[in-house]
Amino acid sequence: MIALRLVHLIESHSEELSENLVHKLQRSTRTTDYRKIPPQEIRERGREIYRNLSEWLLTKTSEDIERVYIALGRNRAEQGVTMSALCWAIITTQENLWDFLELHGMREKPLEILGGFELVRLLDQFFDQAVYFATLGYESYGREKQVEVRDRFSRSA
Fold first, then answer.
1. Which of 50, 69, 62 shows the shortest CA–CA distance to 12?
2. Reported confidence tier of residue 58, pLDDT bands at 50, 70, 90
3. Is the CB of residue 78 less than 8 Å from the CB of residue 61?
């Protein structure tokens, strides 16, 4: 099946994909805040997604994605990354996959292409949830900081 073959292709090239992701995020004007993050940290996040893509798509639950991406959103907020840069980085992570698959030519028979549609659906579902939960984590960090500032202000008054 094409979807499984493509996932294995992605997983076996996780190093290359992660390296390309680091370069894209460092060059993009939409992710300038990602220059605050050590490249190795970005590389490791990319590898974790790309190397374990079949797990993310087939066995991880929405709760697993929620747990990981809320923590990521909070972490990026702590690092001073804007929410727009965070969202664009997740989008870039997905686009990086499509660029890679285009380079490796997806010339398949029509019946095999139908299997690829399932992969597209699963990828979209995963990355949509990643953006949503990362945003929730980011927002929760912001709310906590507002409470801290308000409490500090009320104590000093």
1. 50
2. confident
3. no
Residue 145: other Cβ atoms inside 10 A: 12
- Specify the amino acid at residue 79: Q
**Sign of the CA dihedral with 78 first, then 81, 84, and 86 last:** negative
Q: Are 142 and 77 in contact (CB under 8 A)?
A: yes
Q: Which whole-number Å values give the CA distances from 13 to 4, 19, 82, 104, 128, in the listed order? A: 14, 10, 29, 11, 23
* pLDDT of the residue at 147: 85
Asked if residue 152 has pLDDT above 60, the reply is yes
* Mean pLDDT, the chain, whole residue set: 88
Confidence at 2, pLDDT banded by 50, 70, 90: low
Q: Where do the domains of the chain lie, and which CATH numbers do they carry?
A: 2-156 (1.10.490.70)
Q: What is the DSSP secondary structure assignment for residue 35, as one 8-state letter?
A: G
Does this model's pTM top 0.85? no
